[in-house]
Amino acid sequence: MRISIKLKFSLFLAVLLILALGVLSYFVLQGVERNQLTQIEAYLAQHVKTVNLRVKQTFYTGTRLEQQIFMRQRGRGLATELAGFTGLGVTLYDGQGLQVGTTIQDPPVVDQQSEVNAALAYALHNKIAYEVVGDTLLYLAPLQGPEEQMGVVKLQYSLKNSQSFLRTLQNLFLTTGIAVLLLSFIIGYLYFNRAAAAIGRLKKAAEDIRRAEYIQAPPIGRKDELGELAEGIYFMSKEIEQSIAAKDEEQRKLQLAIHKLQALEKQQKQYIGNISHEFKTPLTSIKAYVDLLNMYDDDPKLLLEAKASITKETQRLYEMVEKVLQVSALETYDFESQAELLEVAEGLRDVCARMSGKAERFGITISCDAEPAHIWIDKESFMHIFINLLDNAIKYNVPQGTIHVHSELRDNRVTITIRDSGIGIPDESRERIFEPFYTVNRDRSRQSGGTGLGLSLVRNLVEKQNGSIMLLETEGKGSVFELTFPATS
């Protein structure tokens, strides 16, 4: 979170005032509290002397008893008498720490009682101890007998007046401190506001220049160093704007030319190499049969064989040229497709019906399990995609093999899988099967008429319809292609 400089200066002043007031208040309150405690201790110590004198007087003037027996027999009366002298709550304990008399009616709670017991144990060793319990000070002092400590006296002193005085002081310091803080903050904020506003405008001008939003006039007009800085920023902005504009234009043209050249070079090398390689095989076969016919033109068997082979290779060449043109058109131009709402299950059953004749000739069984769903797609592209995939599944299947087409609605997308029981695709070829002219088995592709362009064309069509296609991993034979398209409700 950004904090303005004027707010920072004001907050800094406020922090200094808070620190000064806080330290001053702390030491004053601590001094007052220590002074109160000192006075209370002196007051209670004087009462303890009076208590000791009275206990000794009673011990010597009455029937002479053993000290602990004396404390147990006379403790209750002494506690009442001493409370009258001192005006405080008095509790007497014998030398074993047993209570022998008290004028305190409300005993402390369990947690407080454990603290009092600790102080009592300390006082039994001829030492003075005190414990603050709530708003009460419990002062424990030894009772001295003729020869040794006779017991302990506990005086209960109320701290309500002292605590009330401290709270009054605290509230006074708090009220005064808040008032001084607010007044200082307002004065400091107003004082730094004018200079900070000018600095803020200069900062904004620098930020605009950094974002290439160049300023058209000096951000501030002043007759001091800030005004001179504003003029300098303005002239710097104009120079940078002109330099960057010229540089960007040259860089854009150069970068565009480099990208186009790199893309064209790569595409040219790839297509020339692939086309040359793929066209060479059927042309070699055609040339060989032409040479044989020139040598043995009267051989009827050779004539029939050459006719069939040349027809097959010519058809293969025609299909390759046709698919090369389709792939090039898709990669070069962005034709507008006629998208429409298509029912997936109906479309897949239509494709399977069209390919069932070819599948039957090869002894292949096609099954379709499609869940009703709708997608927005060009119907011709849809047919082209799945006819190509089913055609490959038939070409590269095994005798009496199967092809299963399945579709379902998953996460607002229509997922379509085409599974076949064919020869499958090796792991080392999985990443390249969508490349133009790439075939897993070139001998099998030539026998079946494959050009290596079908899957490349399919991927381009799928991606132009906002879909995706991938080859799934299979544990056994065969291959599985998964296609997904956005579902339309």
From TrEMBL:
GO MF term list: ATP binding; phosphorelay sensor kinase activity
Top-level taxon of origin: Bacteria
Class of the enzyme per the UniProt entry, highest EC level: transferase
TM regions (residue ranges): 172-192
Membrane topology: Multi-pass membrane protein
UniProt domain HAMP: residue ranges: 193-245
One CC-aspect GO term: plasma membrane
Keywords recorded for this protein, A-Z: ATP-binding, Cell membrane, Kinase, Membrane, Nucleotide-binding, Phosphoprotein, Transferase, Transmembrane, Transmembrane helix, Two-component regulatory system
SMART domains found in the cross-reference section: HAMP (SM00304), HATPase_c (SM00387), HisKA (SM00388)
InterPro entries membership: HAMP_dom, HATPase_C_sf, HATPase_dom, His_kinase_dom, HisK_dim/P_dom, HisK_dim/P_sf, Sig_transdc_His_kin-like_C, TCS_sensor_his_kinase
Catalytic activity: ATP + protein L-histidine = ADP + protein N-phospho-L-histidine
Sequence ranges assigned to domain Histidine kinase in this UniProt record: 274-489
Enzyme Commission number(s) from the entry: 2.7.13.3
Compartments it resides in: Cell membrane
Record protein name field: histidine kinase
